[in-house]
Amino acid sequence: MAYKILKKKRLAPGLYDFLIEHTTIPLYARPGQFLIIRIDERGERIPITIAGVQENSVRIIVKCVGKSTYKLAMMKEGEHVLDVVGPLGNPSEIDCYGRVCVIGGGVGIAPLLPITKALKGASNHITAILGAATAEFLILEEEFRELSDELIITTDDGTIGKKGLVTHRLEELLNAGERFDRIWAIGPTVMMKFVSAIATRQEIPCWVSLNPIMVDGTGMCGACRVEIDGNMKFACVDGPEFDGRFVNWNELIKRQHQYKEQEKAALELFKKEAGDLSWL
Amino acid sequence: MALKKRVPMLEQSPEERIKNFSEVALGYTEELALLEANRCLQCPTHPCISGCPVEINIPAFIKAICEKDYKKGIEILKDTNNLPAICGRVCPQEKQCEAQCVLGKVKGNDSVAIGRLERFLADLDLSLEISKHRSDTENTGKVAVIGAGPAGLTVAADLARMGYEVTIFEAFHRAGGVLIYGIPEFRLPKDIVEKEVNYVISLGVKIEYNQVIGRTIPFRKIRQDFDAVFIGIGAGAPRFMGIPGSNLNNIYSASEFLTRVNLLKANEFPKYDTPVRIANRVVVIGAGNVSMDAARTARRLGAEEVLVIYRRSEAEMPARLEEYHHALQEGIIFHWLTQPVEYIGDINNNVKAMKCIKMKLGVPDESGRRRPIPIDGSEFIVETSLVIEAIGQKANSVLRTGFPGLKLNKWGYIEADPETGATNLEGVFAGGDIVTGAATVIEAMGAGKRAARAIDSYIRSLKRA
């Protein structure tokens, strides 16, 4: 086992772009799928959506939020993570829909990239809305500029693009008479929830990529169960993409907080041991 | 002169063991094993053998113990059973070999403790140099085995011993399947599993970890690259009761709860990164072996009070008696004839109570057990902040998408010939829980043994053609 980190690039504070060596993921991965990484012998299984593949490697973009992602971000090129399993989950349903709006928030912009590429390849007209906290945290702008017929940038503080949320920009477009056949939204759960609310009002199918707490990622444990249109689904094998109009968002958000106290305690302890992490 | 009662096995005291995850049963010393082995009548009819799904020559290995020829005893065991240290611990011997024992049928006598003697020999073997059993005749066929659980390991070991080149594809980072993620350390230490897996590897079997066939590698690719395929992926998908509130926080499937602790060592959080929740009062639903494992694990994680709720009565409980007794000794409380009907959550979506209803038993149903019927108006509330549902598994839905063309039955399990494991696809065999639904470790191993023979004759027929 053990999978080599071929490349690591700092995109923004606490935000890293990795290429991890893998022989089969590049052959079989399709947009929308994810992988599970275990960093070391004591590591937990971390699900991460795939940002792209190259000939002998898989690309992931990781934001430091908890102990495991900090640990990953601290690893260097040439070092190895212990386990990589993928691709998992169902691929995105790529087709020629017509006019598609792709919406990415924060690190969620990363998995949106291969999906957008595939949608463009299927001859869709692409409107991309990318949102970040500040200009510093906006990722993959250039890649999206090439792929999109229209690119809209928005930041919380207005340091780049328009000030505000991605949902504001979507509302503006729709109010101006723009019509979309499909929406893809990937980002923080709250962002996906509010995009889905707009999609519900406008009756637009709206794919979102859910990231509930997950353990095995193969349908074995049921940790990632989500309520979709009143039915219990497992995000790992039935998803991770679902039509956001039918997701029980409030339940999902609360389930994501299940280990909040433990996660916080583990991170505090790790920060004490690891020393100053402000360089990350 | 022989003892009427079986020689007891040493165990950790209940007060001690609820504070640790070390093995409860400590096994026999040589002295105790000899005492027990000498109880065997060496009867000519040896019905015990027919009670064993893999037909171990039981009287012969017990005789070898009596003669202190342990090497021979180990050889006899390994002749039919590649994983004896595991079987000696987790087989339901009281329903299999030991149920048939002639001595046990004599009034006032216990049957011979065959499982404990198997464990004695197997543990001895693990501490000695491992003898290889690889065949000299090279059959040079290539076989892929999907899943490194009891069925897969057995097929692989048997075929390797016949001279085949075998590769196991395992979804997790460790081999053993349910032996690793499901059965707790205190019942089956993981280093025992690891040693027996290493024995299988020593026979020439290759194990590729982190491979979810049907997802990470397409099934068609496996079929192209190998002469035959065995699917032994288990029935890993958890069942939920599906009552209102099932998605509240701190309601676990037993698979999730046990995987977090057994495979990912959540009991050592934060030294290990995977967390698990615990509560003062934990409710476990269901009364099978998995439920006992979950309840006893919860106790060890620090739960003061663990309740097991079961909709039928003690008489219908599917768990092994030994596990049930161990659970009782550890202070687990059982509520029979009780069925949860709804979970109640707090403002943060955490479970805080469950509404249950009392049941009575009606006429026997298709399982032969008396059907539980709710008693109207008997609802009551049980307060709890952690629930583990241990009501069984079902077929993983990945089968439907990941294995195109494979014929499944109406429950989603693979349709396979019970004798050979042959499926509707040429050269594809299956066995274990993914064919039968959740069963025992030894039954999965039995299916593996039969499939190994069938795969051998299939590949031989290919070569003749």
Automatic annotation (TrEMBL), chain A:
Q: Which residues form the FAD-binding FR-type domain?
A: 1-94
**UniProt-recorded name of the protein:** Dihydroorotate dehydrogenase
GO molecular function term, any single one: flavin adenine dinucleotide binding
Q: Does the keyword Oxidoreductase apply?
A: no
Against CDD domains, the record matches this protein to:
DHOD_e_trans_like1
Q: Which organism is it from?
A: Kosmotoga pacifica
Q: How is the cofactor bound?
A: Binds 1 [2Fe-2S] cluster per subunit.
One biological process GO term for this chain?
Answer: pyrimidine nucleotide biosynthetic process
- The reply to whether Ribonucleoprotein figures as a keyword in the UniProt entry is no
Domain of life of the organism in this record? Bacteria
Q: Which UniProt keywords apply?
A: 2Fe-2S, Iron, Iron-sulfur, Metal-binding
Q: Which NCBIfam families match?
A: PRK06222.1 (NF004862)
- Sequence positions that bind [2Fe-2S] cluster: C221, C224, C236
Cross-referenced PANTHER family, in alphabetical order? DIHYDROOROTATE DEHYDROGENASE B (NAD(+)), ELECTRON TRANSFER SUBUNIT, DIHYDROOROTATE DEHYDROGENASE B (NAD(+)), ELECTRON TRANSFER SUBUNIT-RELATED
> Which cofactor(s) does the record list?
[2Fe-2S] cluster
Q: Name one Pfam family in it.
A: DHODB_Fe-S_bind
Automatic annotation (TrEMBL), chain B:
Q: Name one Pfam family in it.
A: Fer4_20
Entry's Gene Ontology molecular function annotations:
iron-sulfur cluster binding; oxidoreductase activity
Q: Using the record's annotation, list all stretches that form the FAD/NAD(P)-binding domain.
A: 142-448
Q: Which InterPro entries match?
A: DPD_II (IPR028261), FAD/NAD-bd_sf (IPR036188), FAD/NAD-binding_dom (IPR023753), Helical_ferredxn (IPR009051), SudA-like (IPR006004)
The source's superkingdom equals: Bacteria
The record's annotation in Gene3D superfamilies points to: Alpha-helical ferredoxin, FAD/NAD(P)-binding domain
Q: Which residues form the Dihydroprymidine dehydrogenase domain?
A: 17-125
Q: What is this protein called?
A: Dihydropyrimidine dehydrogenase
